[in-house]
Amino acid sequence: MLRGTIMQRGTLHLIGIGGTGMSALARLLLAEGYRVTGSDRDFDYGRNQVLAAKLSRLGMTIYPQNGIGLLQRPQEAVYSTAVEEDNPDRQAARARGIPLRHRSQTLWKLASLHRTVAVAGTCGKTTVAAMIGHILTSCGADPPVALGGVLRSWETSREPGNARPGRGDLFVFEADESDGSLLNYEPEVAVIGPLGSDHFPLDRTRKLFAAFAARVKDLLVLGPRTADRLAEVLDRLDCRVLIPRPELRRGPEGWEALCDRTSVSVPVPGRFNAENAALAFTVARELGIDPREASRKLSTFPGIRRRLELIGETASGVRVYDDYAHNPDKLTAAWRAVREQTRSRVIGIWQPHGYQPLAGMFDRLRQAFGDVVAESDHLLLLPVYYVGGSVERRVHSETLAAALCSDGIQAESVTRDRLPERTAQLAGPGDSVLLMGARDPELPAVAREIGAALGCRISEEDASTSAGG
Description:
By secondary structure, this protein is an alpha/beta fold. It is built from 18 helices and 21 strands. The protein has a seven-stranded mixed β-sheet. The chain has a six-stranded mixed β-sheet with strand order 16-17-21-18-19-20, with helices on both faces. Strands 3-2-1-4-5 form a five-stranded parallel β-sheet, with helices on both faces. The chain starts with 10 loop residues before the first strand and ends with a helix.
């Protein structure tokens, strides 16, 4: 039975509607009967047009981000943390007395009508949330699900694939730590995946997730390493705590986890994905799904766009992967997972997602790449993704490339227009090409350009549903 205070139906205007989390929220609001309008800077610049077209086809009205969308006087204007205070739409909302709400507040108001399952952590939350959603929907449940990525089986020419409307009692969503907004939620069930110093120093990260754990009402599921980092608070929690400790083993078909005598495996590479599957399996079992059925459903998990997504393979065995990795922990995890699938070298490509993150992670990036890039491997660094603003631009991709070369790593900077040609020059039979980066909505198209330059076969359906989004 649905609970909570139902929002008055009306028009909601989403500022930054092209963001993955915002477009997922928009899709669920539309399914709940709201009229949804929105704006996005990327749309105005001609980027991410596949997503813009999908949102329009679903019935949303997309306005330029110049304040004009607020002339219709929506009930509320919803913004994400990425939207600055001086954004024209935020200014227009304030000028007209239209209430402004953070995305997390609107998401929680919608989610709290249900029994909530929140997935948190600095790594893996999109995959774990998608696995839980996949198990539940495949087993006949009908939960609304909001993801931070695109589940391949939910994506169509009409549907973005990062949200699934539903009428069931459960509501599955990701709780974002990057802006601290996960503390706006009080879920009945929560998962906390691996913790690292992604957005904050590790000590601050631990405190943030300890505060989140204290807000969980019924059940908290977390991995052994996360439990160690939160050990000081676990005994003081009011909710039940489960720490699955699966036996992990690598078989001929990839990694699998033995969870309480049930073998769990997923058709996506990487040891960490077996750990993700163990967390999702545990949650599904505790929600009443038969363990054997949960395991069977996980074996059909279709994967997430830009999470070690295999774009294609050439006749000579060169594979092209696309991944969202953007910090040292994720970069090394992705590189190692691809290494396990590779008969020869890894040709890595990374686009830093901002000048400030690049400068802040500089020393850790040198260490990370030094740990995983083999002597025969090669690393290509794209220019820093920059969408404007007054951020200090003192550290560039060329700076990191020079430092890595001095460390003995084959690294170079390359412009985007030269990237497909340079990759084709480097890649040989049996190599794997791994494109990594975040924020830039055009990276999926870049991955497919690389695949085309190498001679990979990419289906028209795959290209049309994922390009630019």
